Recover the amino acids of this structure.
């Protein structure tokens, strides 16, 4: 049904082109960011920058550490499920074409099971975005499109994993490639900035002894 | 022209990694929404941190985001207009106190206040900042320019306070030194006796080597985002400290003055100052730990709570210090929930208490704090920031909380056991 050459192109060449494009664009973005002055603290330190940075990166794994996750635990759980799903779906784009021996039926099943909660999380996220006034107010076409495209990516990942036919794999890889081309231009690329923000915010709080809190000073 | 000035200022602020990360990092997830006391109080979706930041972010994106430059509608990017700037005034100066509560509740660490501060700078450059804040900043500069005239008035005022000090201590030798070269501490108060007398009592009782600054600690240019003026106002104190060859600058109980001098000024100057910078809270903590004061906690027997100023706590790192002092000088201390890093803003910060025409809305925004105070059952609220003190006093009156609002230094004086003096009190009746 799908010519072998097309399926092969979608799984290999196209993926490599899409990934390379994304990486080049990310490299440009990162380079632009590193050219800007870093707002390092200059006053005598009270705490440790590194501890603050680590805390900043790991705060999300400690739902008890933020009021926003304590008060809205479901939202935190949804966040986790969504990002685990994203991680697995991305991993699958590498393992399926490049490490096919790893993709046994059991591994495919585990991957599919891990991505499925992310599909549900995507639906609840979308529902909240359209139903809550405060979220509708700030939402842009990019927000809706990003949600829908990631949702499509998840669904196709599960279908490709579960059915494992050339047709579904080809559809999945074509959509993945489109997704990879789009990501650097959308809010989905937030994680690039997160790497910088974790250092900026975390080191400031750490240096000042705010987070983690420095209790004793002489 | 106004828009051009604002855009130029925004561009300056954008050219910092913090602004860049803040403008591109947000995913509009909405986790920050109910972290904001203004949104909690008003339920107005325009007052969520993300909605406020989004106004600035969209202007930044128009100039800096790849997609937004070509397809602005896709990210909502837009050009800055005069009308847009007018809408920013309330957003930046009324609906955000730069408290950073949204930052600690954001899973990405988006520094929304950086964007709002950039908006403040742009509005100031465009001549649209609240007039009273501009006047207060200019007044501080004028005091420096007319130091000689101001000096005589100041000395007269201090003489009066000195008499009160001598009465309190029962010691006619007690003094408030000014211009004392080689003193260990340069103490920087606010204008008004309430930030001079309690500290003078404490320094005298602790036999401290100190001198009083001729200038006030507050820096309204900081609230305006006017870096040039803010630096100039801060430099008055630094120059005075240099001239007097002091070992450290101790700032009074004022949130922004501390954060500015301790953390921001070194960034402006490219390195640490020649002297140590501390807040009086840290000195009080040192005195109580080193037993330099004789204290009787039973003199503060009423239930009391502590309000963390956002500048001192979340932005400044002074969270445990005031609590250690309170435990040493009072019997019934009850922390608010939440407090410290997650403390709710009182609603009066970042210069808002000075803007009379917004007082009703300021008091409304303080409702979550009023409820929090009421919930503790405390009869005394201690706070170490004059803006917070002013706001909590207004909240007390409006929401009928039945509390007394005091500073930490006043609370310490209340607990001090002084020879020849039965009980000194500076607490409000």
């Amino acid at each position: 049904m799908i010519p072998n050459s097309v399926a092969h192109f979608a799984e290999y060449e196209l993926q490599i082109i899409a990934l390379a494009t994304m990486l080049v664009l990310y490299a440009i973005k990162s380079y632009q960011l590193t050219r800007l002055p870093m707002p390092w603290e200059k006053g005598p330190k009270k705490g440790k920058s590194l501890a603050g940075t680590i805390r900043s990166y790991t705060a999300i794994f400690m739902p008890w550490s933020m009021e926003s996750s304590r008060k809205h635990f479901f939202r935190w759980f949804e966040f986790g499920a969504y990002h685990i799903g994203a991680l697995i779906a991305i991993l699958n784009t590498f393992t399926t074409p490049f490490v096919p021996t790893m993709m046994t039926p059991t591994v495919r099943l585990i991957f599919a099971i891990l991505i499925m909660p992310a599909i549900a999380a995507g639906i609840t996220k979308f529902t909240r975005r359209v139903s809550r006034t405060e979220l509708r107010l700030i939402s842009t076409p990019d927000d809706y499109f990003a949600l829908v495209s990631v949702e499509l990516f998840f669904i196709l990942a599960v279908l490709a994993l579960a059915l494992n036919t050339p047709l579904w794999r080809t559809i999945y890889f074509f959509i993945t490639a489109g997704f990879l081309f789009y990501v650097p231009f959308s809010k989905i690329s937030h994680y690039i900035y997160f790497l910088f923000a974790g250092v900026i915010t975390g080191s400031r709080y750490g240096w000042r002894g705010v987070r983690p809190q420095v209790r004793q000073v002489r | 022209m106004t828009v051009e000035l604002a855009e130029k200022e925004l561009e300056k602020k954008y050219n910092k990694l913090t602004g860049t990360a803040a403008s591109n990092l947000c995913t509009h997830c909405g986790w920050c929404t109910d972290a904001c006391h203004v949104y909690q109080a008003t339920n107005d979706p325009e007052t969520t941190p993300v909605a406020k930041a989004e106004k600035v972010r969209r202007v930044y994106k128009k100039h800096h985001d790849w997609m937004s430059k070509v397809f602005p509608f896709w990210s909502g990017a837009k050009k800055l207009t005069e009308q847009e700037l007018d809408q920013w005034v309330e957003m930046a100066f009324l609906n955000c106190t730069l408290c950073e509560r949204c930052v600690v509740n954001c899973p990405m660490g988006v520094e929304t206040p950086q964007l709002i501060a950039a908006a403040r700078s742009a509005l100031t450059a465009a001549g649209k900042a609240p007039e009273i804040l501009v006047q207060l900043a200019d007044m501080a500069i004028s005091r420096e320019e007319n130091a000689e005239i101001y000096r005589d008035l100041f000395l007269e005022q201090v003489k009066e306070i000195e008499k009160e000090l001598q009465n309190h201590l029962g010691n006619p030798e007690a003094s408030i030194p000014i211009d004392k070269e080689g003193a260990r501490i340069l103490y920087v108060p606010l204008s008004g006796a309430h930030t001079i007398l309690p500290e003078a009592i404490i320094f005298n009782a602790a036999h401290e080597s100190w001198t009083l600054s001729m200038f006030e600690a507050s820096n309204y240019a900081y609230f305006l985002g006017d870096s040039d003026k803010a630096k100039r106002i801060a430099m008055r104190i630094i120059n005075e400290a240099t001239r007097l060859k002091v070992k450290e600058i101790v700032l009074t109980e004022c949130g922004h003055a501390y954060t500015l001098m301790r953390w921001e000024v070194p960034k402006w100057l490219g390195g640490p100052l020649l002297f140590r910078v501390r807040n009086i809270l840290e000195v009080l903590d040192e005195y109580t730990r080193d037993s330099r004061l004789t204290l009787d906690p039973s003199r503060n027997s009423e239930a009391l709570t502590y309000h963390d100023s956002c500048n001192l706590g979340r932005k400044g790192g002074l969270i445990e210090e005031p609590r250690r002092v309170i435990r040493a000088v009072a019997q019934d201390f009850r922390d608010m929930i939440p407090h410290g890093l997650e403390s709710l803003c009182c609603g009066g910060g970042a210069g808002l208490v000075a803007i009379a025409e917004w007082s009703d809305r300021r008091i409304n925004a303080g409702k979550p704090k009023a409820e929090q105070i009421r919930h503790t059952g405390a009869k005394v609220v201690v706070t170490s920031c004059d803006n917070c003190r002013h706001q909590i006093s207004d909240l007390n009156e409006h929401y009928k909380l039945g509390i007394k609002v005091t500073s930490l230094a006043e609370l310490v004086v209340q607990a001090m056991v002084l020879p020849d003096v039965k009980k000194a009190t500076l607490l409000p009746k």
Notes: The CA atoms of residues 29 and 75 of chain A lie 30 Å apart.
